[in-house]
Amino acid sequence: MRVHVASKGVVSALGLTADEHFAGLLEGRSALSGSPVAGRIDRERARAELARRAPELARAAERFEQVLLGLALAEAGAPRGTLAVVGTTKGLLEPFLLEAGFVPLVVSQACASSTQAIALGAALIEAGEVARIVVGGAEALSPFIEEGFASLSAIDPRGSRPFDATRLGLSLGEGAAILVLERGAGSGPHVVGTGTGSDAFSSTSPDPEGRGLERALRGALGGCEEAPGFVCAHGTGTEKNDAAEMAGLERVVPGARVFSIKGKVGHTLGAAGALDAATALLALEKGAIPGTAREPISPAVTKGREDTEARAALSANAGFGGLCAALAFRLSPPREAGGAK
Amino acid sequence: MTSAWLMADGSPIDGWSRLPDVKREDLGDEGIRGGRFGKLDRAAKLLALGARRALAGTLVDPATTGLVLATLTGSLAADEAFDATRARTEGASPLLFPATLPTAPAAELSLRYGLEGPVLSVRSSVKAAFAVARLLVLSGQAERVLACGLEVAAVGASRFLGVEGPFREGVSVFLVDRAVATRFAVPLLSALETPRGALLANEPAAALAAMLEGSAGTFDGPPERG
After folding, report:
1. Reduced to 3 states, what is the DSSP secondary structure of residue A243?
2. Cα–Cα distance list, A139 to A206, A228, B28, B58 (Å)
3. Which fold, A3-182?
4. For the domain A188-332, what is the CATH superfamily, name and number?
């Protein structure tokens, strides 16, 4: 597989553009705040920014997940009239996408929803069904979602600490990310592999050995010509997820550096896979990966920002029901030596 | 063609024609991880029944089998059930929340059958599920995929969907293997009509079955009535 990533757009609690988001990550800045602690986005500011950036999208956006998706679409310069495969868990995205001029397909695979959306988009290009496609995901916080996760006692009252020995749970977040994929081998980043696997273990807990994730990672690695230098991991901060995920990662990519962004922006559920994918791409392009944990559960996990010469990377996600998906990316031609930019 | 479909056709109550309740014995236990019946909601039970009917006598290797579920209302009743618990003094129900994910009925089926391939849902018709299933098979993500449609009665369906009822509960299941995927080209773009009919995601099931029956010749008859 070799699918060109033509452009991207990112909105997270760290910023309303990809550059703001990634700069915040490299600075080690956490956008988690409030009570309960979460990665919240200022709604008035986001709506105003969308109205400034893309007035026609602002007019079509009623719900906040639609505003977030609109911001990411606008930054990516997503071409109207194309198929848009987007992931979400509880968002309502179709009416907005239709009014905005896209052909929508909304995909859910729990917290791997937008990972799967990107994988399907790449497969559609590989199969020759489309030449260009818009993929990604969006999710907004709501009392429904926050009370749901609170009922599961899944929230860390101090804020999420992924892959940290002291972790106690996740923090929720909201955001969106969009990639425009196209046929061809142009220079820049490419999707080179996709994989999906299911634990078939429990409706809420991951397989402790991370077997579904392992299947997804191995599937994605099938398209990788070189070992990935790092993984933008799911890393939610829950005891079970991080342990299971690390078990899978250590078996499949033992030499790779591992980081998670959820301690900085929160867990954005259906948008998480797209945010992680976009972050992995930004890290490849910028030559740097963010820090993750003060007391890492594995030496593979980053403590602080690290420069990287990696030309290939993975992103991986897992959700309720043990539904997992992974993506492999490669920078082509290789970035010039010189470390972080 | 390995398939099954069940559509309600009784008089609507509260805007819905409903299928009969699924009983434990309807699902059987051959090849199935038992003990979860009591934890399944109506959507998961109906999907499990459809899959059991479709797969009767067909052996599939769960390690290489996936599932694509098309549904517009699949988790709406679960949303409503969970929503009703949010005002309780003891807090919202942790038992009901996981079922509010659109993928929940599909994930439950993956647990029952041990499916280790891709398991996802799409907010579209079963024809789109078929197209995605075909794509997953042809791209090597799975050797076979169950393409399913599912609609389940929910009080707020008209408001949520922006479409007037009455609606009909239903479930349709088609097994897509490499032979089917190769033989029947259903590009995803051609399958993305927005389901607006009474059967919602299951609306194209009859046409899909007729198409497959026409060439494969093993579709076993008209839809069962609920």
Report:
1. helix
2. 22, 28, 38, 39
3. Peroxisomal Thiolase; Chain A, domain 1 (3.40.47)
4. Thiolase/Chalcone synthase (3.40.47.10)
Tens of each residue's pLDDT in chain A, 341 residues: 889 999 999 999 999 999 999 999 999 999 999 989 999 999 999 999 999 999 999 999 999 999 999 999 999 999 999 999 999 999 999 999 999 999 999 999 999 999 999 999 999 999 999 999 999 999 999 999 999 999 999 999 999 999 999 999 999 999 999 999 999 877 899 999 999 998 888 877 888 888 899 999 999 998 788 899 999 999 999 999 999 999 999 999 999 999 999 999 999 999 999 999 999 999 999 999 999 999 999 999 999 999 999 999 999 999 988 899 999 999 987 555 444 44
CATH architecture of B3-225: 3-Layer(aba) Sandwich (3.40)
Tokens matching residue B144 = 């076979």
Q: Do the Cβ atoms of A116 and B118 come within 8 Å?
A: yes
CA distance B147 to B119: 10
With CA atoms as reference, report the closest residue to A279 among A23, A4, A2: A23
A3 and B CB contact within 8 Å: no
HSE-up (13 A, CA, CB side) for residue A200: 22
Q: What is the reported pLDDT for B221? A: 36
Average pLDDT on B41-65 reads 90
**SS3 call for A83:** strand
Beta bridge partners of A230: A257, A313
Q: Beta-carbon neighbour count of residue B28 at 10 Å?
A: 13
Cross-chain residue pair B122–A144, CB shorter than 8 Å: no
Which parts of B21-101 fold into alpha helices (H)?
24-27, 42-55, 76-83
| 3-class SS letters over B82-151 | HHCCCCCCCCCCCCCHHHHCCCHHHHHHHHHHCCCCCEEEECCCHHHHHHHHHHHHHCCCCCEEEEEEEE
Domain positions in chain A are: 3-182, 188-332
Q: Is the separation of the CB atoms in A177 and A270 below 8 Å?
A: no
Size of interface A-B (CB pairs under 8 A): 152
- CATH topology match: A3-182 vs A188-332: yes
**Residue from A62, A99, A120, A218 whose CB has the most chain B CBs within 10 Å, to mutate:** A120
Is the Cβ pair B123, A108 closer than 8 Å? yes
A-facing residues of B in 156-215 (CB < 8 A) are 162, 187-189, 192, 194
ipTM of the complex in this document: 0.94
Catalytic center residues of A:
111, 234, 267
Q: Are the beta carbons of A115 and A276 closer than 8 angstroms?
A: yes
For chain A, report the end-to-end CA distance as a whole number of angstroms.
28
In angstroms, rounded to a whole number, what is the distance separating the alpha carbons of residues A310 and A319?
Answer: 27
